[in-house]
């Protein structure tokens, strides 16, 4: 599952982080899990997490044993909602040619 379309016009690393978090929205992810699931260096990942936190798109929970990161509810699409970038080939052609 991918983040809602209105949150996809961000830096590639930020979008990859949001997508990974949305895919595991219920259990969240640790930084190590994100690091293995997002193709980015640790510095890029750290910067993306800081930006997403500042923009209020992620929540960080520390239960004393482990720090887990979750997407904010508004980033997670409703069940059955299809992100705009998942449009089919015909929809893409229609949009491109204004049909």
CATH uppermost class:
Mainly Alpha
CATH topology: Arc Repressor Mutant, subunit A
Cα distance spanning the termini: 28 Å
Average pLDDT confidence is 86
Total strands? 2
Round the Cα radius of gyration to an integer and report it.
15 Å
- Would you identify the CATH architecture? Orthogonal Bundle
Domain count, please report it.
Answer: 1
The major β-sheet equals: 2 strands, antiparallel
Number of helices: 4
Proportion in β-strands: 5-15%
Per the principal axes of the C-alpha atoms, what is the gross shape? globular
Extract low-pLDDT stretches.
none
Structure classification: mainly alpha
Write down the secondary-structure element order: HHHEEH
As a percent range, the share of helical residues equals: 40-55%
The CATH superfamily label reads Winged helix-like DNA-binding domain superfamily/Winged helix DNA-binding domain
**What topology, given as strand order, has the largest sheet?**
1-2
Can you put this structure into words, describing what you see?
There is one protein chain. 41% of the residues lie in helices and 10% in strands. The protein has 99 residues and is mainly alpha-helical. It has a single domain, classed as Winged helix-like DNA-binding domain superfamily/Winged helix DNA-binding domain (Arc Repressor Mutant, subunit A). It has a two-stranded antiparallel ribbon. A hairpin with a 4-residue loop joins strand 1 (58-62) and strand 2. The longest helix is centred in the middle third of the chain and has 13 residues, at 42-54. 19% of the residues are buried. The mean pLDDT is 86.
């Amino acid at each position: 599952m991918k983040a809602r379309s209105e949150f996809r016009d961000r830096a590639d690393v930020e979008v990859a982080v949001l997508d990974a978090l949305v895919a595991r929205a219920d259990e969240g992810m640790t930084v190590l899990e994100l690091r293995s699931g997002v193709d980015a260096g640790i510095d890029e990942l750290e910067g993306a997490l800081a930006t997403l936190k500042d923009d209020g798109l992620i929540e960080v929970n520390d239960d004393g044993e482990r720090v887990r990161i979750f997407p904010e509810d508004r980033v997670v699409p409703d069940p059955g909602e299809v992100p705009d970038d998942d449009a089919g080939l015909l929809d893409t052609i229609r949009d491109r040619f204004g049909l």
